Amino acid sequence: MNKLIIIITTVALLSINIFAQSTDVTKEPGYVDFGDFTAFENSTNVTEVILDEDLLSVLATMSDESNPNIMEILNGIKLVKANVYEINDENKDQLKERINEIDSKLSNTKWKRIVKTKGEDEIANVYIKLNNDKKIIGLAVTNFEKGGEAAFVNIVGNIDLSTIGKLGKKFGIPNLEGVNEDNEKKE
Fold this sequence. Notes:
The protein is an alpha+beta fold and 187 residues long. 38% of the residues lie in helices and 29% in strands. It has helices at 2-21, 53-63, 70-74, 92-107, 161-171, 179-186, and strands at residues 46-52, 77-86, 111-118, 122-130, 136-145, 149-159. A hairpin with a 5-residue loop joins strand 4 (122-130) and strand 5 (136-145). Mean pLDDT is 78; it is low at 1-21 and 181-187.
């Protein structure tokens, strides 16, 4: 019975802490509104990952013993959001158009493209947003692979590109493993 009381108290305290820290991440400069994905939710394979600052903090605490570097990776990150859709004949044109719209929108703002691949069967873009101190505060990745998947990824907060691949592997977020390698190849 004492263990149950301790568990309930701990969960209650964590919940209070989580609700007290919640902020509107859509107001952050590194946030990208990819639009409404409702039309694609009936695709055969759909993956959606939304890790906000509070959940990332809890996950970092839980992972601390098995991987002490996870706290460093997650420090300052406010949101990790990924939407991945299997491309089929019904949605391929819409998904391709959405990626091109996002590319156009980000190209005309203060986002800096660090990777661009465009071919008949593939489109990939990686953007970063810098603050006044030239620190990365936003990362946006869009990817379209004909016969494969379309991915839309946004990471908001203080970002170190060298740790993004680790973050993708740790939480199973598609299309993040090669971000730093792609940037190093470009330079």
